[in-house]
Please model this.
Amino acid sequence: MKAVEKLARAVENIDSLLCVGLDTDIKKIPKFLLKKKDPVLAFNKKIVDATSDLVCAYKLNMAFYEALGLSGIISLKKTMEYIPKNVPVVLDGKRGDIGNTAQKYAAAIFDYFRADATTLNPYMGEDSILPFSEYREKLSFVLCLTSNPTAREFQFLKNSGKPLYLQVADRVKRWNKNKNLGLVVGATHPGQIKDIRKAAGRMPFLIPGVGSQKGDLGAAVKYGSAGGALALINSSREIIYPSSGKDFAVQARLKAIQLYQSINLARN
Amino acid sequence: MKAVEKLARAVENIDSLLCVGLDTDIKKIPKFLLKKKDPVLAFNKKIVDATSDLVCAYKLNMAFYEALGLSGIISLKKTMEYIPKNVPVVLDGKRGDIGNTAQKYAAAIFDYFRADATTLNPYMGEDSILPFSEYREKLSFVLCLTSNPTAREFQFLKNSGKPLYLQVADRVKRWNKNKNLGLVVGATHPGQIKDIRKAAGRMPFLIPGVGSQKGDLGAAVKYGSAGGALALINSSREIIYPSSGKDFAVQARLKAIQLYQSINLARN
Model:
């Protein structure tokens, strides 16, 4: 099944736009898990068990796993295998390189880790995106307007009156011949999401920034899913680290329920 | 020792600006190596043995190793350990993410793999660069003007008359408080390298694109090293795959000597 269909099905069946970010930091997980052979995997399994009926997708940020070297790669691979097959997984790597190199990154993400979707950086242009979009059954979200404070340094620069993030949205829409590209749009820019949706047509949005980064959930939901488009509202730190006690997974579930309900309130 | 000093020393001692890219593709290495337990490592060792007296640095592109999953990470780590301590290594990952994530990528590249230097993507602004520049003894090259054909799609967009690649050069110069940032500038843009050098002051340049991508070696050397600045002239495919026979390392050495000599002719 194509990743976009798998995602649409998950959104419908679970009635959810919630994407939980498994950005698992070994320094932040409950201390008692450090006795386990693979603490990161043990943590992820409990979080997945506690939330998989609430999410339309999981997002795993590769950096948190790479920082642990070989053992992190093992935890990542095993987590990917553990997540139920009907839940799409975004492997968030923000890769971007020349064509022959982008092919190798795509092989790592789609063939080795078997992710459904990924994130890409547009700086180097279409060459760096094509090897990913050629995986027709997969989905790639290209950075458009990011959620971090210094996003505006380059992304807001205007050319012929149009900021870089809209230039990116326009190009990605043009590159989207296989209907498997989307955009990353931070919820911290409520004033801009509307314009990006207008430029992007119905391309799926991956929207980070509603949790610790204090983005605008209302605007994220409204413009993210405008016209029936797919939108993944992601939260990582705020969901997965509410407690360092034995009850961490229960507390994470409660956080996930809260956000799930807030999103669905905003949808209606 | 700081990476910039290590690099300056290597450039002087070896009288070389040549950086050999170990972008080792298991599909392109001599077939007889596939009998080895770790063919990629075996290939890299032979190339390093055959070229380490000719280079000021090696560059390893992470994608080629990640594509092989766990075994690729092992090959990468072991290659990093094998390269002589006096030769600086650029671990080329072109990472770029929000602050807390960039910290993790920096830990992977500098703490786990123990690289001297890396490459970064500027799209998300200073947040994504700072966690790297805070490793004061390391060196990070930020993508400015890349060597690939579609580089111009975004990098040439002008704001107030100044193209994005020069906006990036200006910003990186401002961020460079720890004197450990440089720029990636493709040799395929000879007309632009001069302007970038002017904007960048004496920041080190990493210059890809002189090999298979047919960039302009003369302009790369002239403006790369103008005013005594550090410049790494990188070639990967063209150096490491000249032969698929038993003599592959000897042939790679001959290719490296040719480029080493061409670079030094252009320097004088």
